[in-house]
Amino acid sequence: xxxxxxxxxxxxxxxxxxxxxxxxxxxxxxxxxxxxxxxxxxxxxxxxxxxxxxxxxxxxxxxxxxxxxxxxxxxxxxxxxxxxxxxxxxxx
Length: 92
Fold this sequence. Notes:
Blueprint: E1 2-5, H1 7-16, H2 20-29, E2 31-36, E3 44-51, E4 54-63, E5 68-75
Parallel strand pairs: 1-5
Antiparallel strand pairs: 2-3, 3-4, 4-5
C-alpha cells in the first residue's frame, strides 16, 4: 500500500514535530479506534499508534481501488479531550 500525505497533514506534522517515520510506526502497530464510514470522498478512520514513547493519532482514508492510504492529519492526543486510554473521548 502506498502512503501519501495531504498538505494539511504535512503542515501539522511539521508544527507538531511528528515525522513520516513516526507515522509509519504508528500505522504499523496501531489500532483503529474510530471509523467514519460516511466521510467523503472516501470513508476514513482514526488510528492510535506508538512512535517510540509517543502516542499518535492518525486520521487516514484508504482508496482501495488504488491501494493507497491518504494521511489526513496527525497529532498527539490531548488529555483534555481523550481519556487515559487515549481511545475514548471525554464527556463534555
